[in-house]
């Protein structure tokens, strides 16, 4: 089954000449799979160019980077890499039937399962330290600490992806369930703490928040909403696998849960680009049409392009 390679036909790796069916085992329950496939089309059409644009913006701003740029760039690279998987997956299902390509696709889905939640957790940690513990954050500001953390995330990602590719490990799916529960809890807690700290940072006797902190408050609030939208469905559904029939879980619950997780490869770069005062490399008419908030901000007060709080 194409939406997530962990649910694909078990004989695929042992019989590379089999003609795969994208709805294998779910021929009469295709709605969940179609939903996931539809969202993956957005990752190809919109997600890939959006993530490439994010990488270009980060490279352009490399002389004045924010502390989260290492995590943002790594996340955009991984999301762009994941965006090329659906076309390759369909070609292998219906044309190539190649065992090695099949293994590389499983590896790519393992990358998506792990890299997205972990890099988002790193970004949330960076913001949490900056707002809640600014003194300690100043001591840990050198980029070397973020590079070390990035290397650790890559090692964890590749270890998980390799294990997913090999397959056959008992209760391996529980690893992903535990990871998604832990990272969702961490990201939610971090963003709630940031919002509370920003709310309390108003001056004594003042009703209005400082404009910069107000902007940061809106950014973090939007990020929290995205985290809930992308990660709450799998968090709410996957731990209760034993309560579903195998067919219902495989054909409905799993593809729908992964669909919300996978579409984050498109939503995350679009949210980042929408926060910029000006989107580079794009004609002004495109910016006005697709990023009207950027145009409003640049008209109100021309500022230097910034990164998320």
What does this structure look like?
- Helix content is 72%, strand content 0%.
- The protein is mainly alpha-helical.
- The protein has a single domain, classed as Rhopdopsin 7-helix transmembrane proteins (Up-down Bundle).
- It is globular, with a radius of gyration of 21 Å.
- It starts with 30 loop residues before the first helix and ends in a 9-residue tail after the last helix.
Helices and strands, with pairings:
Layout: H1 31-60, H2 69-83, H3 85-96, H4 99-132, H5 134-139, H6 143-166, H7 173-200, H8 211-237, H9 246-262, H10 264-275, H11 284-290, H12 292-300
Question: What's a concise summary of this model?
Answer:
With 309 residues, the chain is mainly alpha-helical.
CATH architecture descriptor name = Up-down Bundle
Helicity range of the residues?
over 70%
**So how many helices?**
12
Report the top-level CATH class. Answer: Mainly Alpha
Oligomer: single chain
Along the chain, the helix and strand elements come as HHHHHHHHHHHH
- On the 0-100 scale, what is the average pLDDT? 79
Strand content: under 5%
Attribute tags:
mainly alpha; Rhopdopsin 7-helix transmembrane proteins
